What does this fold into?
Amino acid sequence: MIRTTPFHERLAPLNRTGLWQHWSGHLAAVKYQMDDKFEYFAVRNAAGIIDTSPLYKYRITGHDAEAFLAGVLTRDIRACRDGQAQYTLWCDDSGHIVEDGVVFRFSNDHFLLTSAEPNLAWFSDRIGRQRVLIEDVSAQYGSLALQGPRSRGILAGLDDSVGGLGFFHHGPAKIGGAAVNVSRTGYTGDLGYEVWVEADDANAVFDAIVDASAGQGVIPVGMSALLMLRIEAGLVLIDVDFHSSRFAYTDEERTTPIELGFGWMLKDVATTDRAFIGRDAIRRELADGTSRWRMVGLKVDWQDWDRRYRAEGIIPPKDEHPIVWEMMLYDDDMERVGYTTSFMYSPALQRHIAMARVRPHLARPGSRVHLEVTINHRYQTVACEVARPPLFNPARKTASATPAIASAITSAGASA
Amino acid sequence: MTASRTYDAIVIGGGHNGLVNGAYLAKSGLRTLILERRHLVGGAAITEELMPGFHFTTFSYAVSLLRPDIIHELDLVKHGYFPLLMPHSFAPADDGGHITLSKDRNLTIQEISRHSRRDADAYDQYGHDMAQIVQALKPLFDSVPPNLFSGQAEDALALADLAKHLKGLPQRVLHNIVRLLTGSAADFLDDYFEGELLKGLLSSSGIIGTKVGPRSQGSGVVLLFHNMGEQDGVFGNWGFHKGGNGGLTQVLARAAQAYGAEIKLEAAVSQVLTTNGRTTGVVLADGTELHAPVVVSALDPRRTFLELVEPRELPEDLVENIQRYKFQGTSSKVNFALDGLPEFPGLDGTQFRGFTNIAPSMDYLERAFDEAKYGWYSSKPYLDCCIQSTIDPDMAPAGKHVMSCFTHYTPYKLKGGDWDTERDNLGDTVQRRLEELFPGFSKLVLRREVVTPLDIERTVGLSEGNIFAGELMSPQLYFFRPAPGWNQYRTPIHGYYQCGSGTHPGGCVTGGPGRLASQQIVSDLARSGPAAGAAAGG
It folds into this structure.
């Protein structure tokens, strides 16, 4: 039986389309209005409400909780302070990625880890003799994301403490009379928060946020728009931009953290005394230079795109709906040098963009590759420039609170 | 103030075309100065906070026609370019009827079918035909038109290319183009549609800013013009720039400055300096002289040729053509600050997210035009309303709104009256009309601002308040904009160029004139220095 999230009672009447998809066994709105592009715009220009409750949530407690996570997670949890969160990965012994998620640190013996797929067995099997308890608390909590430039003002109006939260910080707050935890995290690459609530408090919290948002252009946002936002933000998605090493059949399907662009998590990997799963393989990869790929951003040459379609008598398509299957990439000699994993037309950047894997020698920003497309049923290539993700990266995403809505009129920051 | 400072190029007028032109010139390496008469750049594309928290798009109010090349060539996204798509076009009728077109095709088909099943797929056909027309004309829109009268080899070649392009078009497309260039919007639309409300909505694009009715020959080209734009690759789609059209011109100013252009505000130019048929710079109203071998006027043709320079320095036929170039501004704006969203019986308010088109039928528009023909403003005017705060919440305080109402027809020259006397009466006329359609509207009004053609002329400097810097009619387009033989941005004075909306591709916020003029200037400089146009034959 498909389940519903704690916010379903409130969100279901707002879905004017009747379209739902399954997300980890739960109903999730594809879009709330037929034109999902306007949900995208709400996040980029006001704020959007996104029900992210179907995420798996694991509470990790016990005397050895920190040591345990330091040993299983790729990124060093010891560098995360209480009240902070980390985007992190976990790998297998061969240094391939199992999955990614966000870990919230409350204290050295209390963490919450989120993931897209179930991971209870994988983590539990690795506890050994450590004093650690892992509980699946997925059903106990709902999470509601409020993402977009207006999110801070709205939530800070409900609880002052939210206004001071730094990027990837979290803390307790009171919203709609309920005790909640608010984190400055999200999947949109914009200023935004996620509110973690006890399932029974979901309606009260939802109502409070909707009331506080009135008249500010805030609307619920479905999965379709969320997947546009995350590509601009350069945030990877399992089974799209990478596959879990656990369930891959060949190493071609597997990816390493370095290959997926997470070298920044591993700056000290050569010297650290932290023994974590996959460390030695990652060291070998770095020492021997065996990385096969680098995840990069691509900016499609706008004029080349238009020219090639027009020459074929076709109006150049500019569709914001992502293409999440592989499109091949070539170098100047027409050698195959990579492929896109997520591709879309970005309304904010006014051009097609992609998340892609290229051979490491082409990963430098400014490198040129050629994207294969079919126009009138014939293969053609369009020039692209390699760029460092995220391609959309407004200052407000990580900036601390500024007085009122200063310069709201002129702040549409984007790094192109 | 340094009177002796010299520049490579001086651009007169900091409207969107002046900014685009200055940005391109600076990008090409020229030391460029942009002079703006007012305290802010933008010309007729400005946003003003006339009441705390309420941001008004005083004049132009939406975007679609800005040339896509400019967005990329000037790297505008980096400077904040952010067009917000409009979800709807809503047309209410006095009998409680209404039609709302959405960006979602299926919703639109359902909605049109409510009025006429026949019109549903006719709407798709219309959209497809129009897209083919636009695609065929886009290369002409985005390039310097040939000069029919120069006798130069390159113009002959360009003409041959043009003929080849037109000959290559499918018969139906070429015929449709001619029908639109020469005919009326009504004749064109009548071939597709039967629903009066839909025809009222669509034919409105054929009269915007122009002294024609939907049944006048000449409204076809205005209809075509308003479909030449695009938003995210969809022709004819309109959007609202973040922060209004003033937000857009601020982006253009930042881009120009990033390329090294200098912008000087409150610097009205009184005269363009000329010596022996060459320009040497400009004189400001305060007497300051600024020198440059290239001077570009972004002002309208009347000011460019008859006011900034001495007409006696120009060929007689050019002077005569500019004197008879039609301005006859016919549009006004009435802008409101509202205490809440207006209500239309039976609808939930979301229909206001976009244009609200007050023209329930073609007859309505034609009658509104009748009064203008005889020298007065419409007693039931055509209104193109836009509650921009429903698209961009930063335009008004939470729960409050700003509403821009483009108002047509309001002729510049009133017979037996004047705008200083009629200004408030026009405001009352518009407000009364809105009250008829949206009961309780007047109670929402916190502030009203009426901008007549006279106000447009006084504030922005557009002659006779014509929003396109001269009527968009075939005798004033392409080969003939602004005058036969002078359609390539040059003037008879060496180094003196024109880049305003009075040149090709014309009015609306296209930036096309600014961009194409810059190409002409840069290529002239690369060849032999600042140039004058070839002598016009006619």
Remarks:
- The interface with chain B takes residues 34-35, 37-38, 41, 44-46, 150, 214-217, 302-303, 306, 310, 315-318, 320, 345, 347-351, 405, 408-416 of chain A (CB under 8 Å).
- The radius of gyration of chain A is 22 Å.
